[in-house]
């Protein structure tokens, strides 16, 4: 049976792989980018480097097949992303041309704009998260259990509220978040993206 446990440094390649294989509105994004490493460099690996204590994985026989990760303080994370993370990856992923010409350019533009995470409408929910499971492990209660571990860790750190953002096209994920008690808050400047919030009580 798969188990949920804290993230370990050896899980890093699995976390990157899961991010890619779920990165297209829940589907496989392997063919979407010339360099698929750009996706986890933007949305997964910074979190496990900065706050590994807030990362948990679903382990099936020694390999991670799902994860939840995030930050307790989005503003502090953005500042670290700008000063600490970008210098470590911009050699491989330089700032793209403007306007972007390829899907990789578009994603690199996101990577180089961490301030995008500072959304005034959710500033009173300072933590945020990402959760992904490989398709064969979805719908079996593992996502709820992962979320429970993450929320427990936030409560232990004294964090009362959390938010997440998601593509509206990912209707399966939206149904999952609705079942866990997340509610949408209006962010009018970002069409196609839903921002969901909740407190850190158990799901």
UniProtKB/TrEMBL annotation:
Q: Superkingdom, according to UniProt?
A: Bacteria
Q: Which InterPro entries match?
A: Acyl_CoA_acyltransferase, Glycosyl_Hydrolase_84, GNAT_dom
Cytoplasm is among the record's keywords:
no
The N-acetyltransferase domain, residue ranges: 2-202
Pfam families named among the record's database cross-references: Acetyltransf_1
Q: Name one GO molecular function term.
A: acyltransferase activity, transferring groups other than amino-acyl groups
Q: Which key words tag this protein in UniProt?
A: Transferase
Q: Which residues form a coiled coil?
A: none
> Is Transferase found in the keyword set?
yes
Q: Which Gene3D superfamilies match?
A: 3.40.630.30
Sorted alphabetically, which PANTHER family does this protein's record hold? O-GLCNACASE (PTHR13170), PROTEIN O-GLCNACASE (PTHR13170:SF16)
Q: What is this protein called?
A: Acetyltransferase (GNAT) family protein
Q: Which organism is it from?
A: Pseudonocardia kunmingensis
């Amino acid at each position: 049976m798969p188990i949920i446990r804290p993230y370990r440094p050896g899980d890093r390649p699995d976390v990157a792989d899961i991010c890619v294989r779920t990165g297209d509105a829940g589907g496989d994004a392997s063919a979407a980018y010339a360099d698929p490493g750009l996706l986890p460099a933007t949305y997964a690996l910074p979190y496990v480097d900065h706050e590994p204590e807030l990362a948990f994985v679903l382990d099936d026989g020694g390999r991670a097949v799902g994860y939840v990760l995030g930050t307790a303080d989005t503003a502090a994370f953005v500042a670290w992303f700008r000063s600490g993370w970008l210098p470590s990856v911009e050699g491989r992923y330089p700032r793209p041309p403007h306007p972007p010409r390829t899907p990789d350019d578009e994603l690199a533009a996101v990577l180089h704009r961490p301030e995008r995470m500072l959304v005034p409408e959710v500033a009173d929910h300072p933590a945020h998260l990402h959760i992904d499971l490989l398709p064969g492990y979805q719908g079996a209660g593992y996502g709820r259990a992962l979320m429970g571990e993450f929320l427990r860790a936030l409560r232990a750190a004294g964090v009362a509220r959390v938010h997440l953002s998601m593509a509206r096209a990912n209707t399966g994920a939206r149904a999952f978040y609705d079942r866990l008690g997340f509610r949408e808050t209006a962010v009018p400047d970002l069409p196609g993206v839903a921002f969901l919030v909740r407190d850190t009580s158990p799901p």
